[in-house]
Amino acid sequence: MKLFHISFFLIFSVSWSSSFAQESLPPHIKDNIIYPVLDFHPWVGVMPVANPAMAYDPSLDYKVALDLYGKVKDSTAIHPAILEVARTYNLTIANGVPAGKIQIAAVIHGGLVQAILSEEEYHQKYQTSNPNLVALKKLEEVGVKFYVCGQSLGFNNIEVEKITPIVKVAISAKTSFVTLDQRGYSYLNVSED
Prior knowledge:
Blueprint: H1 8-19, H2 27-30, E1 62-68, H3 80-94, E2 102-108, H4 119-126, H5 132-141, E3 145-149, H6 150-155, E4 167-170, H7 173-182, E5 186-189
Parallel strand pairs: 1-2, 1-5, 2-3, 3-4
Helix pairs in contact: 3-5
């Protein structure tokens, strides 16, 4: 499987996004960050890079399989892995890739299945609205496809009817990544646990 090596920048951004998720941006970021398409959260923006050594090539099709897992640690906040889906999209657009050349498939598994519960189920479990649903809807609008591991749903005792219809149920995360790889998608882990 094609494996992207996560750069220092991505690791830095993931750790910072969870550290400051609902706080205001530090001035050095706030004064420079841009939001080319998605702007539903402060940490989905990207920092411009002048004259990058590894520039995006708009002639390529950018097909990315994002690995989303973890636990719901703050039920009132959008999960950091979901924010990274938006940052991945914004980063690609910000660097000149046309929207029509971007195909992102986000595969959700493990404890993160709790983040995709329907509004009613999430409220019943956490006594608050599901902040992830707004993000999922915005990402769906720009063409991101979401899949959830059917095995994770089963192990977590979650019926398909209890999750948002934005996310489609796959047999498993494993088979999803193998299938996406065979279809030319590059694997990228954007989760932090």
